[in-house]
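Sample entry copied in:
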Amino acid sequence: MSRADQAASSQKHDVFQAIADPTRRSLLQLLVDQEIPVKDIAGHYPMSRTAVSKHLRILSEAGLVVERKVGRETRYRLDPEPLLELKRWLAYYERYWENRLQALKRLVEADESVHPRGE
């Protein structure tokens, strides 16, 4: 299998799809500072270990978590690198709203100079 094929197969889900689910966002928070075995991760959620594993697989396919075998145990940790794509996308909209709020501020201040309060 070529590197391109491997990359395509490992990117079955994009970051946006992966973080769309609140459980997966919670899993990312849990894995922020530590590598945790799947059995311990499952203990944090009111669902089966199989269901937790499915969520972890989606996060793994999006490149957001890395798994490592230690004996018979699979451990997971966060890989924050793919979140940069999300950060760049959100930065565009942050600038958009900042510009809109600045325009609103100028409009309100201009209106107050023409129509001062209390008169």
Notes: Residues 1-10 have pLDDT under 50 and may be disordered.
